[in-house]
């Protein structure tokens, strides 16, 4: 109703951070390729096992002059795991405090990236080597305006090419390429990788990368499996170059959530060479984020603290799409006014000076616990308000009352995902 609309408008106004003109439109009209990297945590970047880089391809992107690499981005997911990350990326809102927004809020109204880019002539598609009902994707995608959903039924799911949840990343990208080439341009294409999933076990024919050498099998296997993901990404980039799509695209890669839980702290302490204190646990919530724009030098760019919610405004501004009509709770990582206070889904937060973990405060630089001071309340409150607002939007389905100028409401009846032979 009108009170809600007034509230939404006020929140948008208060939270809006204008883009930096140095970066706005840098990738205008380009195809967007977003890659969700399953369970990839930032600590593996530039890490070596037995002298070998775990992620040589991603490490090369870190050094690449045409890449923004952000190494202080926290995952803001909850129980919805991969689906929460997807939701955050497409809406710049949090998932739910409990459960999954994809499962529970698929009937809500959203102003998601596929809908926003539709106004700019984009076709949207999601690619994933698991079946469409997993995480209720086939329902949520309708409310987010995904034109197409290429799920497991489009891929050769033979035994050699699959493990636990579905298709391995190499055949996934290989088989996706001809479909991607067939999409009308410009497109917004999301690729959700899968094989670097707990418990990270590999088929021996898929890897010759060494395992780590701890007493913990899951941790040992993680590096092999992350290395496989990295080499699948490398091959995909080669394919993009061959197809000619590469130069017309902007490519976003992000880790979806942690892979190694706190149950594996003992082995993780060996791996990173430090005791896993609560502060180190927080640092392990960092996920790598890359934005690669072929042919465009990124120069000396800001590398702030941020979260997954910040990726959408960053991307939209690079595409030259203004965000001041949309209720997103993140801010552009490249903007001067970017807000570094980054609340995690569990209520903890990170900021430039102070972090809060489980109601205790830490110095963000030294990692040392510090005693409470009244001035921290402002941050604590701002963090809480952001989470509460996001929850209110989802719970009350508030966006159904709000009609951004120049945005055609997404009508979920216009979308469904049925294979021709079903
Ligand atoms: C399943 C895949 C993995 O389709 O997205 O889900 P996760 O367990 O990481 O949420
Ligand atoms: Mn996942």
UniProtKB/TrEMBL annotation:
Sequence ranges assigned to domain Sulfatase N-terminal in this UniProt record: 30-321
Protein name: Glycerol phosphate lipoteichoic acid synthase
Binding site residues for Mn(2+): 38, 82, 256-257
Subcellular location(s) per record: Cell membrane
The organism of origin for this protein: Cytobacillus kochii
Enzyme active site: 82
Residues annotated to bind substrate: 197
Membrane topology designation: Multi-pass membrane protein
GO molecular function annotation: metal ion binding
Keyword annotations of the record: Cell membrane, Manganese, Membrane, Metal-binding, Transmembrane, Transmembrane helix
Pathway: Cell wall biogenesis; lipoteichoic acid biosynthesis
GO cellular-component term (any): plasma membrane
Keyword Membrane among UniProt keywords: yes
């Amino acid at each position: 109703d009108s009170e809600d609309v007034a509230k939404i408008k006020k929140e948008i106004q208060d939270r809006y951070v204008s883009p930096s003109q140095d970066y706005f439109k840098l990738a205008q009209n380009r195809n967007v390729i977003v890659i969700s990297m399953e369970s990839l945590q930032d600590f593996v970047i530039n890490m070596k096992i037995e002298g070998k880089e775990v992620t040589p391809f991603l490490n090369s992107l870190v050094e690449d002059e045409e890449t923004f690499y952000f190494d202080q981005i926290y995952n803001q997911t909850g129980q919805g795991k991969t689906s929460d990350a997807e939701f955050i990326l497409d809406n710049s809102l949090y998932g739910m405090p409990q459960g999954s927004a994809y499962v529970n809020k698929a009937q809500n109204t959203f102003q998601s990236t596929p809908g926003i880019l539709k106004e700019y002539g984009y076709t949207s598609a999601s690619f994933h080597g698991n079946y469409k009902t997993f995480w209720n994707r086939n329902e949520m995608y309708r409310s987010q305006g995904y034109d197409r959903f290429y799920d497991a039924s489009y891929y050769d799911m033979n035994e050699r090419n699959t493990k636990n949840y579905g298709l391995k990343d190499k055949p996934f990208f290989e088989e996706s390429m001809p479909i991607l080439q067939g999409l009308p341009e410009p497109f917004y294409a999301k690729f959700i990788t899968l094989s670097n999933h707990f418990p990270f076990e590999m088929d021996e024919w898929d890897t010759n990368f060494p395992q780590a050498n701890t007493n913990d099998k899951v941790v040992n296997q993680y590096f092999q499996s992350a290395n496989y993901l990295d080499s699948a990404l490398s091959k995909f980039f080669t394919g993009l170059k061959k197809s000619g799509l590469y130069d017309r695209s902007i490519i976003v890669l992000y880790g979806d959530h942690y892979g190694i839980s706190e149950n594996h702290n003992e082995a993780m302490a060996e791996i990173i060479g430090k005791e896993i204190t609560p502060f180190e646990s927080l640092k392990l919530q960092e996920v790598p984020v890359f934005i690669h724009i072929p042919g465009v030098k990124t120069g000396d760019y800001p590398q702030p603290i941020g979260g997954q919610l910040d990726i959408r405004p960053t991307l939209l501004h690079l595409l030259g799409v203004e965000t001041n009509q949309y209720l997103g709770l993140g801010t552009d990582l490249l903007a001067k006014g970017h807000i570094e206070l980054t609340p995690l889904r569990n209520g903890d937060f990170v900021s430039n000076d102070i972090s809060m973990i489980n109601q205790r405060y830490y110095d963000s630089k030294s990692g040392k616990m510090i005693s409470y001071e009244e001035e921290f309340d402002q941050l604590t409150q701002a963090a809480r308000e952001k989470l509460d607002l996001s929850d209110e939007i989802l719970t009350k389905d508030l966006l159904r009352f709000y009609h951004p100028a120049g945005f055609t409401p997404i009508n979920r009846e216009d979308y469904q995902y049925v294979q021709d032979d079903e």
